[in-house]
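Hi R.,

Here's the chain you asked about this morning:
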Amino acid sequence: MPATFESFGIKFLYPDNWKEIQRAEDEGSDGVTLELPTGGFFSIEKELEGQLVNEIIKEVADSIAEDYDEIEREEVSLSGAMPNETTIDFRFYYLDLLIVSRLIILESEGRTLVLQLQAESRDFDENELVFAAILKQIRESL
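And here is the predicted structure, written out as tokens:
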């Protein structure tokens, strides 16, 4: 039976073997991070109004660059994308593993949602249909 996330105007189903990570009090309640059993994660955050897409991308890129040497970055187009949707794939190595970190920024009706999907490349590929199903639900709830 799938689990349900419902908060800050967003509702979606996700696999019940994914764990919701407890958030620190200073992180607020406008987001969630779900941990995949294989070690990857799916997170969604509601951003403050007025933050520019390029600023969000730079923040995420800088955060990844702090911990990893070489990072590849590619803008991608996803099927079913909304008109104000930006998707960037970051790729980097951790130990000998290739990590894929997909950043999706959805702008709709004056609010911005930031999704980050990250896993080792094989696990990312195995979960891509699940990620797509969750993203479809989020798009429909906007």
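One quick note: The first strand starts at residue 3 and ends at 7.

Cheers,
M.
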